[in-house]
Write a structure and sequence with these properties.
heterodimer, A: alpha/beta, 13 helices, 13 strands, elongated, B: mainly alpha, two-stranded antiparallel ribbon
Chain lengths: ~325, ~240
């Protein structure tokens, strides 16, 4: 674990710096949408979140990626003020999370958020709109307040306008999830927080969900979503924060995360191989010998192969590309001891 | 006050009529059966059927108010309270909505028992007495509305209905609502005085005896309301800290 966690956060910081430089001066001056500092939460003897630091700039679309039990949901609960951290601090637009929600700047979709079964879709979203309406009266008044959006517009956006008259109790899990999404959007939030938003959705519904999310993010909203689907993090996030055992193990763009275990692996049969000579080949990062098989990790497999084939007796060559899955496994499985 | 939320709660009440029907049916049936036995009798210048009518009305309003608060436990069970915490709704507003809803729930049982009393038992009272007993009984539901909130935050969703029912039946039994405290053995009467139900009965029935307002009883009821209210706030805080 030590090698992994020592090197990767550096990369994360590098990314944040680059992100800030790439943005306009006005957004750099704006306060962070989310600032989590030294966040820690224990449940009995289990440490769910261990000293997590995370800053999200306005306009970023961030995926919180990690296996079950990595501490994603606990982090989100603390970010939303649903759970009190044992130590550390949470600031959402510089405010206490509860104040940020009351000011109407945050919309959230949680797995555990229940809906009233005896109301219709239209009624429950109208109810949410009425609760959002009072956000405008909050103090201090936020310049970002636009007030609740029209119910019909949000129902359309969440893809439930044809279910308006249907009771919640009669909806499928996926349909209920879309109703929760409508309820998250009704306040017209600056920050949208989604905990595993596509769980229970079929492929088509997932695609439709992300399409409507795209529309939302194009309007400059900040999004934080937790997922264990790598493809979702890869496809929809500007930035991926990889969590394991309650801490951030990697933080960067999908490309940066992939480059952590970058390049390709060349597998060749090469009896009596000299690891030192192989390491000296162009592009080679590491060499591992398993009997007669050499496993060469290269950031430029073409250059490596060109020399490997002409200067050694290597045969049965296989080349495999690394994908996010490998990065994910390498970073999250790590040392199991 | 969020009127839309209250409207949605009333819609839910009308769609999910179990609590409402039970709180109306039980006292109306009890009144029809028991009141019919004492139709002609009088006690200290008051008609016994009228006395039982006021008592059964109280039983209904009590059970309605307690049962309504208990639904908070069901909402906690399905995660609705968690969902609400993602909205700008202030917790005090939620509790206020629930109390108003409990007070609305306390009204139909009163109206129905009075209708049964007037129509089938021939209870005749001056208009002013009808109004006094009605208003006193309705406002007397306030401590039970507060008690309902406590139950809503203490009880488990799967047992809240049984807990509420047991509680209001015990209150009715030991508080001199089903059986007049005056007819109870000495020990039972002392126990009765320790329940809010007894004092609501004292206040609501006093117009039948042309008595003036019992300020002592009203003060005790206010104390019960404040006590249950504070307890509900504490339970609410503990619940939100944990969730």
């Amino acid at each position: 674990m030590s090698g992994m966690t020592n090197t990767l956060p550096t990369q994360g910081r590098g990314h944040s710096g680059a992100g800030a430089d790439g943005r306009s001066a006005s957004s750099r001056a704006a306060e962070a949408a989310v600032r989590l500092t030294g966040l820690t939460k224990r449940y009995d003897q289990v440490v769910a979140v261990a000293g997590l630091d995370l800053t999200i700039a306005p306009g970023e679309v961030v995926a919180l990626l990690g296996p079950n039990g990595a501490g994603k949901s606990t982090t989100i609960d603390m970010l939303l003020g649903l759970t009190r951290p044992d130590s550390g601090s949470v600031a959402v637009y510089g405010m206490d999370p509860v104040a940020a929600i009351r000011s109407g700047r945050v919309g959230a979709l949680l797995q555990s958020g229940g809906l009233l079964p005896d109301l219709t879709v239209g009624e429950i979203v109208t109810l949410s709109a009425s609760l959002a309406a009072r956000a405008g009266h909050s103090s201090p008044p936020s310049p970002h307040r636009r007030g609740p959006r029209p119910v019909s517009q949000v129902l359309e956006l969440a893809g439930v306008s044809d279910l308006t008259k249907r009771r919640i109790a009669q909806l499928s899990g996926g349909q209920q999830q879309r109703v929760r999404f409508a309820m998250a959007l009704i306040v017209d939030p600056d920050l949208i927080v989604l905990d595993e938003p596509t769980t229970g959705l079929d492929v088509e519904a997932r695609r439709a969900f992300w399409a409507s999310m795209r529309t939302e993010t194009e309007q400059g909203r900040t999004v934080l979503f937790a997922t264990h689907y790598l493809d979702e993090a890869d496809a929809y996030a500007d930035r991926i924060v990889l969590m394991r055992a309650g801490s951030v193990v990697a933080d960067g763009t999908a490309a940066q995360i992939k480059s952590v275990v970058s390049g390709r692996t060349i597998r060749a049969t090469l009896p009596g191989a000299d690891p030192v000579a192989l390491s000296a080949l162009p592009g080679v990062d590491s060499v591992e010998l398993r009997g007669d098989t050499a496993l060469i990790t290269s950031r430029d497999s073409d250059a490596t192969l060109r020399v490997l084939l002409t200067t050694t007796a290597a045969r049965d060559i296989e080349v495999t590309a690394h994908n996010l899955e490998d990065a994910f496994l390498a970073l999250t499985v790590g040392d199991q001891s | 006050m969020n009127v839309t939320y209250l409207r949605m709660e009333i819609i839910r009440l009308l769609r999910n009529r179990r609590v409402l029907i039970f709180s109306i049916l039980m006292p109306a049936i009890l009144l029809g059966v028991i009141g019919g036995l004492y139709k002609q009798d009088s006690l200290n210048g008051a008609n016994v059927a009228a006395y039982i009518m006021v008592s059964m009305g109280l039983f209904g309003s009590m059970s309605g108010a307690i049962g309504s608060g208990g639904t908070i436990a069901l909402e906690r069970g399905i995660g609705w309270n968690r969902q609400l915490r993602l909205t700008p709704l202030v917790p005090g507003q939620y509790l206020l909505t629930k109390v108003i809803l409990s007070m609305i729930m306390a009204l139909p049982p009163l109206l129905v028992t009075y209708a049964v009393g007037a129509i089938s038992l021939g209870v005749r009272l001056p208009a002013q007495t009808w109004i006094s007993i009605g208003v006193a009984s309705w406002l007397g539901a306030l401590p039970f509305a507060a008690l309902g909130l406590v139950i809503g935050y203490v009880a488990k969703p799967d047992s809240v209905q049984q807990v509420s029912a047991l509680l209001y039946m015990l209150l009715a039994l030991f508080g001199g609502i089903w059986v007049p405290a005056e007819q109870m053995p000495n020990l039972m009467r002392h126990i009765a005085e320790w329940t809010p139900a007894y004092w609501v009965g004292q206040v609501a029935r006093s117009p039948l005896f042309h008595q003036s307002m019992n300020m002592h009883a009203i003060a005790i009821l206010a104390a019960w309301t404040a006590g249950f209210g504070l307890l509900a706030m504490r339970r609410f805080r503990a619940d939100t800290a944990r969730a």
